[in-house]
Amino acid sequence: MSASGIEWTELTWNPVTGCNKISPGCKHCYAESMSKRLKAMGTEKYKDGFLLRVHPETLSIPFTWKKPKVVFVNSMSDLFHDDVPFEFIKAVFSVMNSTPQHIYQVLTKRSERLLALSTELNWTNNIWMGVSVENDDYTYRVEHLANTNAKIKFLSIEPLIGPVTSLRLKNIDWVIVGGESGHKARPLQKQWIDFVKNKCSEENIPFFFKQWGKAKFNINPNDPTIEANHPKHAKGGCELDGEIYREMPTNAA
């Protein structure tokens, strides 16, 4: 468990580490880079680098938190990876079911397995389930998510590396959009963001714009949130038409 710099959560909890790339959004995976650094630092949990590993010893951690937390589950992996045993997925869900004071945000690119297992999992109100979408080729993940039994369903459209004009938001409760960061970051175009924002507005879905990713992608070089000392600072800034959009699900338990 560690405090998170991700704007839409408070903590990260990683009962699984390691993964492999399955779509263009994975190209510059921050978790892979971080795993390599942690291995080089001698961190025991990452002794195998980015090879997928489950960590049963971490399952007790949420029971030690004295105050309610908002928790991103498996920021360093994908809970629905094919190599994660179903019994371990159920064990993670059991912990989340047993600690209703915390909100758990689970994010996957493996929407097929998510949908296949959905009816066998206990979806308590404190589990927010999301899928990642990076361009139009992967909007099918949204339909898979929409057909699960999750109570709160969200999209992480990050890194947004192409238009998502086939995006459908039926049964979706929250949408996050963000650009890619890092020295090899791919460009973000405002019209791609505007399309998602307008669609959210039309369907009354909370919209969270996380970041432009790089200042050179931001169409407003005077965006004050580019500055590191700004209280709402994000990579590349996070204003959109002079506003900061950090809306959260309105029907969350």
Structural class: alpha/beta
Taking Cα atoms only, what radius of gyration do you get, to the nearest Å? 18 Å
Count structural domains.
Answer: 1
The major beta sheet can be summarized as: 8 strands, mixed
Number of DSSP E strands: 12
Number of helices: 5
Overall mean confidence score, pLDDT: 95
Give the DSSP E fraction (strand runs of 2 or more residues): 15-25%
Q: Strand order across the biggest sheet?
A: 1-2-5-6-7-8-9-10
Shape: globular
Provide the succession of SSEs.
EEEHEEHEHEHEEHEEE
Helix content: 10-25%
Between the first and last Cα atoms, what is the distance in angstroms? 23 Å
Low-confidence stretches: none
Write up what this structure looks like.
This protein has 253 residues and is of the alpha/beta class. The protein has one domain (2-244). 20% of the residues lie in helices and 18% in strands. It contains 5 helices and 12 strands. The protein has helices at residues 30-40, 86-98, 111-117, 140-146, 190-202; strands at residues 2-3, 11-13, 16-17, 53-54, 70-73, 103-108, 127-132, 152-157, 174-178, 207-211, 239-240, 243-244. Helix 3 (111-117) runs parallel beside helix 4. The longest helix has 13 residues, at 86-98. The model has no long low-confidence stretch (mean pLDDT 95). It holds the Pfam family DUF5131. This is Phage Gp37/Gp68 family protein. InterPro entries: DUF5131. It comes from Mucilaginibacter rubeus.
SSE layout and pairing:
Elements (H helix, E strand, L loop, with lengths): L1 E2 L7 E3 L2 E2 L12 H11 L12 E2 L15 E4 L12 H13 L4 E6 L2 H7 L9 E6 L7 H7 L5 E6 L16 E5 L11 H13 L4 E5 L27 E2 L2 E2 L9
Parallel strand pairs: 2-5, 5-6, 6-7, 7-8, 8-9, 9-10
Antiparallel strand pairs: 1-2, 3-4, 11-12
